[in-house]
Design a protein that fits this description.
157 residues, 8 helices, alpha+beta
Length: 157
């Protein structure tokens, strides 16, 4: 713990029950789904991470979880979402914030402060002004623009 994290009870980032009831996609279908434009509701939910309401407001946390579930349910098991990394708007000394898939852990990281291993690779993209946030998966990243357009970056490193 680094003193900047905000935690709620540890629950999976994505609803495994919903994922189990979602048909398994083929590899080409998963890539197509990853390339699809993200919805306005999902963009709005993720953009509010800096507001801090998710820490103290269970309804805000549930709404965020629901937005992620609705957006990414078809990809939960097959793509192994590790977390989301975005530019932090809290100001100096903070650079990025993360939402980790291991539970509802929202961390704000200072300039140069290491991110969890699987999320560090997204840092440079997350601070780039072209992107709203980066979805980090086990074998690729998806850079999401404010318009919802996506760009896939292949590879685990």
């Amino acid at each position: 713990m680094n003193g900047t994290e905000a935690t709620a009870p540890a629950v999976p980032l994505l609803d495994r029950a919903r994922a189990a009831s979602t048909p398994t996609l083929s590899a080409p279908a998963r890539l197509q789904r990853l390339r699809e434009r993200r919805s306005a509701a999902y963009l709005q939910a993720v953009s509010q991470l800096d507001a801090g309401t998710h820490v103290h407001d269970r309804q805000a946390m549930d709404a965020l979880k629901s937005a992620i579930d609705l957006e990414l349910a078809a990809l939960i098991d097959s793509e192994q979402l590790q977390g989301i990394v975005a530019r932090c708007h809290l100001g100096d000394p903070y650079e990025v914030h993360t939402l980790q898939s291991s539970g509802w852990i929202i961390d704000h990281f200072k300039f140069g402060q290491p991110l969890p291993l699987m999320l560090e690779r997204a840092r440079t993209l997350a601070v780039h002004p072209a992107y709203a946030f980066i979805e980090v998966y086990a074998n690729r990243m998806v850079a999401v623009m404010a318009s919802g357009q996506t760009a896939i970056i292949e590879g685990a490193t």
